[in-house]
Amino acid sequence: MKKTVYIIPGFKHSTNRKIYKDIGNLFPKKDFNKVYVEINWTRTTIKDWSRQFLEEFYKKDNSKTFLFGFSYGALISFLLSSEIEIDTQILCSLSPYFKEDLPRIRKSWKASMGHRRVTEFNKFVMSDIANKIKAKTFLLYGENESEFVITRAKDTFAKLNCKKYLEEVKNSKHDISGPEYFKEIQKTINLL
Asked: How far is 139 from 153, CA to CA, in rounded Å?
């Protein structure tokens, strides 16, 4: 049975960026159908982003489903993997914007994100969502990312009750196009 991988970009990214095409090419063509999910980030919230993903998801056949997301794309994958049936997800630099995280986030960030987005993020309790996830989950984060992202990855890993893997990407920051990050993604995909 052929597999389908959905590639979900980071905030304000497009899957037309070369790095997302390069990542898609890491999934063997003979084994995987690739769906590059374009998200309209303008004046929208996580609810809208999830709906945009689901529009693509429900077009699929009955193949095994894999999700790949970076940053906000990882957040979308994580949230939806508790609601839809998937086989595996790769979460790169999972954004730390759950109810538990928001009290520690700077006010300037909250102001830049906008009240509606912050209100939506505040509805998601990470530990409740983690308990519902059954899919194999790979969590990757950069060694030089913000402490918020590192803590979110480690805490999420601890709370997941599924088959799970946690990998720190050495010499890497919050940049999916960095060479170290790309190599680690390649290693992870080779494990599928």
From this structure: 7
Q: With the CA atoms of 9, 11, 16 and 20 taken in that order, what torsion angle do they form, in degrees rounded to the nearest 10?
A: -40
Residue range(s) defining the domain that contains residue 39: 3-190
Domain tally, the chain = 1
pLDDT digits (tens, 9 = 90+) for 76-135: 999 999 999 999 999 999 999 999 999 999 899 889 899 999 999 999 999 999 999 999
Lateral strand order in the sheet of 164-169: 32-36, 3-8, 64-70, 88-92, 136-142, 164-169
Q: pTM above 0.85?
A: yes
Residues 66, 50: Cα–Cα separation, whole Å = 16
Contact 148, 174 (CB under 8 A): no
DSSP secondary structure, 79-111, as one string: HHHTTS--SEEEEES----STTTGGGS-HHHHH
| Per-residue pLDDT reduced to its tens digit, 17-36 | 999 999 999 999 999 999 99
Q: Give dist(CA 93, CA 152) in Å, integer.
A: 9
**Domain holding 86: CATH number?**
3.40.50.1820
Collapsed DSSP state (helix, strand, coil) of residue 116? helix
Specify the residue for token string 């030089």. 144
* Structure token pair of residue 171: 């010499």
Q: Are 27 and 5 within 8 A, CB to CB?
A: yes
The CA distance from 117 to 92, in Å, is 21
- Which run of H or E residues covers position 44? none
